[in-house]
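Hi everyone, sorry if this is the wrong subforum. Our group has a chain we'd like a structural model of before ordering constructs, and none of us has done structure prediction before. Sequence below.
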Amino acid sequence: MALPPIARRIAEARRQAGWSQHRLADAIGAAQTTVSSWERGRTEPGREDVRRVADALDIPVSVLELGGEPAAGNVQTVQLVGFVAAGARAWFADGQGDFGEVPAPQSANDRTVAVEIRGTSLGEFFNEWLVYYDDRREPVTTDLIGRLCVVGLADGRVLVKMIKMGSAPGLYTLLSQTEDPIADVEVLWAARVRSMTPR
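Answer:
Right subforum, don't worry. Here is the predicted structure as tokens:
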């Protein structure tokens, strides 16, 4: 039996954001089993549920309700500006370069750019995935706390990490799935990850 369109769209939007079912459930005040049930097509979310999912994932409600596929022959691209480290070893990105263009996500705007993950701290699955962002904050703003972000550190590294407050003003702790936290570092800028896709 084919999945209902809303089930596929919620699952796809969640994966593109790099979120687990647990994280989405927490963000919308629901149980993980509820999100799982929606994505399996066992139950259907109400309109308010769909709105909460869209708000949490920072996408238009219409993407979940109607789909947002670009018109055929109208493929957009965005700049690939560098490579970001998602692991402890290989970090070699500046986030400022021009490495060509890559396909744009559905939610792209004129400020959207992409970086490519190099490393495994988000899990081996995400190595060489594209990460899209469009709203670089310098300095870091409080709405980015607890979010998966592309972050630029004072030592020149550019990483993909979840940001938490550090032990003192101006310092942050950076989290990933498989590596130890990077505690109390100075983050020069951060941009929330808007979507992720395999290259």
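For your construct planning: Helices lie at 5-16, 21-28, 32-39, 47-57, 61-65. Strands lie at 77-85, 101-103, 113-118, 129-133, 136-137, 148-153, 158-165, 171-175, 182-192, 195-198.
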